[in-house]
Design goal:
By secondary structure, this protein is mainly α. About 70% of the residues lie in helices and about 0% in strands. A two-stranded antiparallel sheet has the order 1-2. Helix 5 packs across helix 17 and helix 30 packs across helix 31. It is globular, with a radius of gyration of 29 Å.
């Protein structure tokens, strides 16, 4: 074939290969490996060496080497490079399609109440399916492009998730529970590292599983201690768990990933003959950890403070026409902080988390009201895309990495048991926290139910596997049965050391992936039942569904959303960085917990159009009377009290509507598996009696004898 015809042929073959994968026609590209071998046979030794040398280059520039190769060899190498670009594009298409499929299937599963199959698990299954088709089709090119890439994960996926977590966090609730959260994230992660690492090393020495070396075991303990409760937090927000529990689990998850990343990095510094494990180097490692963590926190804080001062000086909140520029400008500071920390060889993840929390406290008050809502929702959308693709990526990694090649099943079992033991620091931290709390304190003591739910919420996921995969690719622990190094007799006798191609890094990666899948499917699928059983839910606020009850919520929000913490000792910092005088008080799980709450003006306008100007004016004046907001009553509390509501609205029809919505809220906490429509039908069938509606829902269905 001529060069031009062969180029066209390669494009067509790439397209047909991708279509074959989508359609599961595995045989369409079965001769891929044979053709590659044929190509290599046409290349000289020099050309094959050049091909290998250019394998990791960002772009294959052959201009400097064309003189040393024949024309045919140069053409073949260029065509192969072009085919890889085509495969990368098709891999991108498949990845995006898998992301969309995960969203669709997750919605369908939620609509039919498949709470035992969370969206994270669906993402893993979709990713496995996508890469499985490529494997069946023998498309090595696509499999290579779908392989889990540490740099892609750390730069494009994890930072948006961590920043959004800090930016939309309820900072006040986080600070109120800072002591137990810090214990779980810092001391707990350290303890888990040595407990898990020590146990898996001891299990290996006892001959129960694959024997890791001591440093490899501790590194495994540090990376597997990175909890990734994306699924749990999503369920928590959907169900509406109590704010103290949510803030502790949420805060631990945000800090824990950063601590695990820095800790594993610190431990790997000992994987060098020049750094023996002695008192001097251990002290140096501790110093390195503190420098990385504190330095990264400071860089993020500086980025957040600069953003606050910038928005304060620009005063964009009084320029409605600059709304989108205002939101776009907020993107600059966290990502600058991230890359400054990375360029300084610190932790970008810690920096962007710190920047998000500072911006939430001091930059958001300088936004216009519309920009406040736009930034919160925009960053949430980006984070949702990233965190969903993390699970799709994990599913692809089960196929693209040798997870099921000489799998260390015994090691997976004992490592999972060690992880359960390592999470027991939750109970220790809860006990120590309760020593300083009593029934009258705020926040209240951590109950046994809270402790168990927090222990149960320790899923493993993307961060843990990312650290394990980069260690495997780097070959940090190349020894086979490193725990038996120096004891050849035990290696020969052990059934786990018979395969010389196996090594400690591979065993760590396999176990990490298996533990991640196990916790995502089992723990993530059971968390809804656990929350209901331990009664850690509270009635949702502001969930009124009709226009009139939305009006009540909106007017109440306008009346009470400016509750301020005027006695806070740090108000001087707020005054310096913003135009505000005191911190606002919030009792929501997250800043964007109720998206409709931020659109008070829109809701009020809708109700005015529906009721007419005169009725609307009368309604507004009644709602805003001080007697209707005694003791800081919330909209939901007013809606649940017909007498108070009748006094506020003066209309039996409005009372019935709002009372019905309040009852739906109560039913939703007692029957979270049912949709709003189902709850309305139950309530109507029970004549408005909540207890009777719950009883009817739980009553067994009697099957007519004729159908038996």
């Amino acid at each position: 074939k001529t060069g031009g015809h062969r180029c066209i042929y390669m494009r067509c073959r790439g397209a047909l290969c991708a279509l074959a994968i989508v359609a599961a026609l595995g045989g369409a590209d079965a001769s891929q490996a044979a053709r590659d071998q044929k190509w290599l046979g046409k290349l000289s030794t020099k050309a094959r060496n050049l091909r290998s040398a250019l394998e990791t280059a960002p772009r294959r520039d052959l201009s400097e080497h064309e003189a040393a190769l024949s024309e045919e060899e140069v053409e073949l190498l260029k065509e192969e490079a072009e085919e890889e670009i085509i495969m990368l594009k098709w891999a991108t298409v498949i990845g995006i399609a898998a992301l969309g499929a995960t969203f669709i299937l997750g919605f369908l599963a939620e609509s039919i109440h498949l709470h035992w199959l969370p969206e994270a698990a669906i993402g893993v299954l979709v990713g496995m399916f996508a890469s499985g088709l490529a494997l069946v089709a023998h498309s090595d090119g696509l499999l290579e492009k779908e392989k889990f890439d540490f740099e892609f994960f750390m730069i494009w996926l994890l930072p948006p998730i961590i920043f959004e977590a800090g930016f939309n966090m309820n900072v006040q609730a986080f600070i109120a529970n800072l002591c137990p959260t810090a214990f779980f994230a810092f001391i707990g992660t350290f303890a888990s590292t040595f407990v898990v690492g020590g146990l898996v090393w001891w299990f290996g020495q006892m001959g129960l599983c694959y024997p890791l070396g001591m440093l490899a075991a501790l590194t495994f303990g540090s990376l597997i201690s990175a909890t990734d409760p994306v699924t749990v937090l999503a369920v928590f927000q959907a169900l509406g768990v109590k704010i103290d529990l949510f803030s502790m689990v949420f805060g631990e998850s945000v800090l824990n990933d950063a601590v695990a990343i820095v800790l594993s990095r610190t431990l790997l510094s000992f994987n060098n003959p020049e750094n023996p494990v002695d008192a001097e180097h251990i002290l140096g490692a501790g110093k390195l950890f503190l420098v990385i963590f504190i330095g990264s926190l400071l860089i993020g804080a500086v980025g957040g403070i600069l953003s606050s001062l910038t928005f304060k000086l620009l005063d964009l909140r009084h320029h409605d026409e600059m709304l989108y520029m205002e939101a776009a400008l907020s993107f600059v500071f966290p990502w600058c902080a991230y890359f400054v920390a990375e360029a300084s060889e610190l932790s970008g993840i810690v920096s962007i988390m710190s920047c998000g929390m500072v911006m939430a406290t001091y930059t958001r008050p300088n936004f216009s009201p519309r920009a406040v809502r736009l930034t919160a929702r925009a960053y949430k959308v980006v984070a949702l895309i990233a965190e969903t693709f993390v699970f799709v990526y994990l599913g692809m990694a089960t196929i693209t990495f040798p997870i099921f090649t000489y799998t260390v099943w015994h090691f997976f079992f004992w490592a999972t048991l060690a992880c359960f033991v390592g999470r027991l620091h939750i109970y220790i931290g809860s006990f120590l926290t309760n020593c300083f709390r009593d029934a009258t304190s705020k926040p209240p003591p951590i109950s046994p139910a809270y402790s168990f739910v927090m222990w149960f919420s320790g899923l493993r996921g993307g961060v843990a596997f990312a650290l394990a995969s980069v260690s495997y690719v780097a070959g940090d622990f190349p020894s086979t049965c490193g725990g038996f190094d120096g004891d050849d007799e035990r290696k020969q006798e052990s059934p786990f050391c018979s395969d010389n191609e196996h090594n400690d890094s591979l065993a760590m990666m396999q176990a990490t992936m298996l533990i991640a899948c196990f916790t995502i499917f089992v723990f993530g699928g059971a968390i809804t039942t656990i929350c209901i059983y331990f009664d850690v839910l509270e009635p949702k606020k502001g969930a009124e569904s009709t226009a009139r009850s939305k009006m009540l919520s909106a007017m109440h929000q306008q009346k009470t959303s400016t509750q301020l913490i005027v006695d806070d000792g740090h108000n001087w910092l707020l005054k310096m960085l913003t135009n505000e005088q005191a911190y606002e008080k919030s009792d929501e799980l997250r800043f964007d917990d109720d998206e409709e709450k931020g659109d008070e003006e829109v809701v009020v306008a809708e109700v005015e159009a529906e009721l007419g100007k005169n009725a609307f004016t009368e309604l507004k004046s009644e709602i805003m009377k001080p007697r209707n907001f005694e003791k800081g009553a919330t909209a939901s509390e007013m809606a649940a009290n017909p007498d108070t509501l009748h006094a506020a609205l003066g209309s039996p029809a409005l009372v019935r509507t709002a009372t019905k919505d309040a009852k739906i809220d109560v039913l939703r906490t007692r029957l979270p598996n049912l949709s709003t429509k189902d709850l309305e039908k139950l309530l109507e069938g029970a004549g408005g009696d909540v207890d009777l509606a719950v009883k009817n829902a739980k009553a067994p269905i009697n099957t007519p004898p004729a159908l038996l």
